[in-house]
Specification:
This protein is an alpha/beta fold. It has one domain: Alpha-Beta Barrel (TIM Barrel). Helix content is 42%, strand content 12%. The chain is built from 13 helices and nine strands. A seven-stranded parallel β-sheet has the order 1-9-8-7-6-5-4. α7 links the parallel β5 and β6. α1 runs parallel beside α13, α6 runs parallel beside α7 and α9 packs parallel to α11. The chain is globular and about 60 Å long.
């Protein structure tokens, strides 16, 4: 799929609101071309980054009051895993559905799909899934060992998240026939890559990500809001690299060869140029446009085609779920305004 748009705005996914209906006008006003369903982690424990996609995982144990979940392999594990793989063999996507209890914001898609005026503006529909590294490091077994380090459980989690992504993509296509889809795999856990405390193996990480990507037919991307080994991500089969351009652009510029190869094969950058912290209070449209311009210049000096750098998305640097509501709404407003101004300049 050739991508030629410049700086279309979208967001990472999470909001601090408790009611998805309060978020809908924010999305339509600031992200009309690439709407998405909002995650509401403050509404419920079930909408947390790991819990939201844990539904249906074999031998999952959950204590809502303690806000705790884990995998208990000490009983009925073989039976539940066997049933899990039967559903995989049958391609039973409904087994992997994300129910309303876990994602209230998903029902906004039904409203969007029934409004013809809104539909005419939409160029892509975006969704998000917690990536296999972050999910596998955060979810542990009864011995408190992260499941990513267990080869059997890692294989289960890759299938589990892959089928969650397939179910989500099918939902998009059913509601919006013919509209291209985007699925981001959110991977803040990749910030630990290469640290002394991380036992992550490069080959395992690449294989796990690529297996999840292979389940998605539309555009697939990774969002990583911290610093990481960018060469590893650029080596995977992703289409979109979503990164914190406000805080980590210079870190990305340390990998010019890999970035150039990625962009020349059709890869796309999602520039997270609007900070999702109190730093946003000292920024305005002009200052963020100037910051982005300087970032592009840094990469151009490394030999990267400026045309390819501009054919991308514009986003906040991360989700806004942990922010106060007024600050989250300011982040969205600035993202939408910067996108509009940049696209006006490009046209």
């Amino acid at each position: 799929m050739a991508f030629t748009d410049s700086f279309l705005s979208t967001s990472i996914g999470s909001f601090p609101h408790l009611d998805e209906r309060e978020v809908l006008p924010i999305i339509l006003r600031n992200f009309p071309h690439i709407p998405f369903w909002p995650q509401l982690p403050k509404r419920s424990f079930f909408e947390g980054m790991v819990a939201q996609y844990s539904e249906g995982f074999p031998c999952l144990k959950l204590k809502e009051k303690e806000q705790r979940l884990w995998v208990d392999t000490s009983s009925d594990f073989e039976k539940e895993v066997e049933e899990f793989y039967v559903a995989i063999e049958r391609v039973d996507l409904d087994t992997f559905r994300i129910s309303e209890q876990y994602a209230r914001g998903l029902r906004l898609l039904n409203d969007l799909s029934q409004n013809e005026e809104i539909r005419q503006k939409i160029k892509y529909i975006k969704g998000q899934i917690t990536g296999p590294i972050t999910f596998g490091l955060a979810l542990a077994d009864q011995e408190k060992k992260p499941i990513f380090y267990d080869p059997t459980l890692r294989e289960v989690l890759i299938h589990h998240l892959s089928f969650k992504a397939r179910w989500l993509e099918k939902k998009f296509l059913d509601l919006f026939p013919g509209v291209p889809t985007i699925i981001f795999f959110d991977e803040p856990g990749l910030s630990a890559l290469g640290s002394a405390f991380s036992g992550l193996n490069r080959e395992d990480v690449i294989l796990s990500l690529n297996q999840c990507f292979s389940a998605v037919h539309g555009l697939k991307g990774i969002h990583c809001c911290g610093n990481t080994d960018w060469s590893l991500l650029l080596e995977t089969d992703l289409n979109i690299l979503s990164f914190d351009a406000y805080g980590y652009l210079e870190n990305l510029s340390l990998y010019p060869k890999e970035l150039k190869t990625f962009l020349e094969r059709g890869g796309i950058l999602a520039w997270g140029i609007v900070p999702t912290s109190e730093d946003v209070l000292k920024e305005d449209v002009q200052s963020l446009m100037e910051r982005l311009k300087k970032g592009v210049e840094v990469l151009v000096r490394e030999g990267i085609d400026p045309v390819l750098l501009k054919q991308g998305f514009l986003t906040p640097s991360c989700g806004t779920g942990s922010l106060p509501i007024p600050l989250a709404e300011k982040v969205c407003q600035l993202t939408g305004e910067v996108s509009s101004r940049l696209r006006e300049k490009e046209s």
